[in-house]
Structure formats: C-alpha cells, structure tokens
Amino acid sequence: MPQSPQDDAFTPTARSRVARRPQRARYDEASVFAILDAGVMAHVGYVIDGQPFVTPTAYWREGRRLYWHGAAASRMLAASGSGAPVSVTVSFLDGFVVGRSGFVHSLNYRSVMAFGRARLITDPAAKRAAMDAFIDRLYAGRAAQLRPATDAEITQIALVEMEIEEASAKVKDTSATDLAADAGWAPWSGVFPVETRIGAPRPSPDIAPAGPLTADLAPYAEGARLEDALTRAA
Amino acid sequence: MPQSPQDDAFTPTARSRVARRPQRARYDEASVFAILDAGVMAHVGYVIDGQPFVTPTAYWREGRRLYWHGAAASRMLAASGSGAPVSVTVSFLDGFVVGRSGFVHSLNYRSVMAFGRARLITDPAAKRAAMDAFIDRLYAGRAAQLRPATDAEITQIALVEMEIEEASAKVKDTSATDLAADAGWAPWSGVFPVETRIGAPRPSPDIAPAGPLTADLAPYAEGARLEDALTRAA
C-alpha cells in the first residue's frame, strides 16, 4: 500500500466504501489493479428500466480505464445512452473454509468492485487500436502477427470504455475461525484451496498442420496458474 | 433438452432472451440448473438509486429458488425493500480461443443469467433450516455434526430468497473459427482450456490435532475439479 491513503488511491464514497468487515477492504491502486490484472472475465452490472442486468464479459485495464466489448455494451448503451452508470466486478474464489459450527463456514475470495460511466467508442481507428491492445494485453506481441482486421470487422465490434471513478478491493484469506463455543466439537476445520490452471492446448482441428506455439502464447503453458499467466502477459 | 419447450423450461421475455448468437442459448431447466449447480459463487446485481451494484456472493439452489446471505442482501434490501428486482449471474471461464486474426479471438464460457425479486427471510426457524441446507448442499451430512447455531448467530445472518422468474443459459465451447481471409496466415490457432481444481487441504492451525476428513468433505479431495465436487455434493 502507498505511504499515504491520498497517494494513488481511490477515494471511497457511500457507493464503494466496504460496509461489512471493513478491515478486509483496500482502496489503493496497487491492491485494486493487482486483482483486476489477474482476471479476464468481469461481471458488468447495468440498469435498463429499473431492472439490473449482470453480464460476464472479457475486459482489460489501461491505467484507470477499463475496456470491454460485445453485446452487453450494445444493449446497455442502446438503452441508457453514453454515460450510463455501470458497476464492474472481478472476483476469484480462493477456497472453502469449513469449521466446527455452521457460522464459521465461508469462502475465501478476492474481489474488486469498480464504478464509473460507460462510453461507447465509435471511432474506427480507436477501435482498431483497442482491439490490438486487448490482443497484446493477453498475448504480448501477437497483434502484429495476425491478419489485419477488415473495416467490416471493426464496424461489428461494440467497444466500451469506463473510467474508474471509485473502486474497492476486498480480500478474505483466512483459516477457520475457532469460536469459544466450538471447543470440543469434532469436525475437521480448515481450508480447501481452489486454483485455476491452464490445461493442455488443443490445436484447431481445421488448420493442419498447426503452427508452432509462439512466445506470445508462452504464459498459457499447460499447468500454469491462470492468474499468473494473465499477470505475466499484462 | 426436454421434448417440448413448454416442459420444464423457462419462458424468455425481452429481459432474458439471448439476443446475440441465440444458437448458444438454452432456456430448459436441465441446462440452467446444470450450470447453477456447478458453482458456488454468483454475481448478484441490484440497483440503489439508479446505481447498479454487482456483489460476488455464495449461493445455492433449491428447485427454482436461489438463496444467498450476507451484506449484499442487507444493503440492497434495506435500500429497496422486499421484492427488489435482482439479477443473479453464474459463469465459468472454460478457455482462451486464439486464431489467425483478431476477430476470432474469444473466450469459451458457460453462464446463466437469472432474474427475480429478492425477499428477505426473517423467521429464525426458516433461517436456521436454510443455514443447515446450505452446509449440507456443499458438505452432505455435515450440518448434523456441527455445534448448533446460537440464536445470536441466526439473528446476525441476512438470508435472501429469489424465485427464478426467468433464466437463460449461454454456452460457448468452440475451437478457433477459420475465416476464409485467414488462409495462409501463420499464427497457431486453437484453445487453451482453463480448469479449476481443489488444492491440498490446509487444516486449521489453531485446532490440534485436526480431526479426520469425514465423508461430507470427500468431494473436495485434492485434484478434484471444482465443478465435479460441487455437482457431486449437490
């Protein structure tokens, strides 16, 4: 964390301040960005006529901006117009906590909730650059190797930018709490950790022979932890 | 899928009908429940004063009802009152799809988006039964082994029930699309699958000696796929 909460930290308001178990909350950029940069799938929340929607979406981060594209963007922005308030949540399940009473059972997790306003990027050159940036964020140096996007492809992509106005991170990484009242009860107490890893690559069956796995794909080696791959690629 | 879309299927409206790539959508209970029962962390969307919030939350399912508890429930229901419209999304990242042009890069995933209205359950006996049901859903037969919850513990828990009014499942499990324009380009095409598994159990350091790993915990054996563990436990 930075020396002072004013340095490189988000300023929470009632919207983003963590009310429950505030000791687990972080507002500094390093904590928030570490979680955002370990993921590739966010849950984007938006409102249409009072109804909340939550859409899982591939995303990436540049500074204090988040980007995503796809149908959610189109639907939301068609309904709400540019500047619609959105919420972007990224979370990781890290483990199952079991104890000797029901009350201590829980999950370990990391999450970031970010707030801002969504803006559709329509300029074709900006969209083209962003598409390359996303490819390179996941697979460094790959965009330059690819068949360039056609104008029609660029037109089909809906691209959204959100400046993070506020964000909070929350981390729970505990073992089972031992409550006084639990003394003498038998059940096993502890944590079953959860890890997400890359499996064996599956070359496209339509393209033979498969080309070599180039350096841009190296972070996705079989057995790599997903978040290590994403952090390494970023 | 059932023989007839009327049998055991959700009826989509504009709210839940999948607009983009409808061939990937499913509305039958079997498809929706299979995804809901493979997960333990949902993203709950709710609205306070026009602002969307998305909170990751442990959940479980009984028939067409979803349950969760915690701070999100309290905050949302305090602001919106019982009957607030909510959206519950469960998703799994299954793989990274890479191809020979930027346009074909994507993620493989499964997701369910469910809609309904949240209702706070306040009856202490119902809360106690639900807490046991959640423990047993994750760890079959465990609730009876635990130190019973005190009245104070039951009071502290905010428990939410949502009847699923509409739900849609969406599944993408493809290899890289081979576009005609990509012919002759060199980059490797295919999928890097992603899998989430249980790690080595970590007994609570405060409780020695650790008791044995009982049958209720067997699905969480080291190396088990998380979704297999959750499906097996359900």
- N-C termini distance of chain A: 20 Å
H-E string of chain A: EHEEEHEEHHEEEH
Shape of chain A: globular
Structural class of chain A: alpha+beta
Largest sheet of chain A: 6 strands, antiparallel, barrel
The CATH class label of chain A is Mainly Beta
The CATH topology of chain A turns out to be Pnp Oxidase, Chain A
State the largest interface. A-B, 95 and 95 residues
**How much of the sequence of chain A is in beta strands?**
35-45%
Instruction: Give the oligomeric state.
Output: homodimer
Please, what is the average pLDDT of chain A? 90
Structural commentary:
The structure is a homodimer of 234-residue chains. With 234 residues, the first copy, chain A, is of the alpha+beta class. Chain A has one domain: Electron Transport, Fmn-binding Protein, Chain A (Pnp Oxidase, Chain A), CATH 2.30.110.10. Helix content of chain A is 20%, strand content 35%. Chain A has 5 helices and 9 strands. Chain A has helices at residues 29-36, 71-80, 124-138, 151-156, 226-233; strands at 25-26, 41-48, 51-62, 65-69, 84-98, 106-121, 159-172, 190-198, 202-203. A 6-stranded antiparallel β-barrel of chain A has the order 2-3-4-7-6-5. In chain A, a hairpin with a 2-residue loop joins strand 2 and strand 3 (51-62). Chain A is globular. At the A-B interface, strand 2, strand 3, helix 2, strand 5 and strand 6 of A face strand 2, strand 3, helix 2, strand 5 and strand 6 of B.
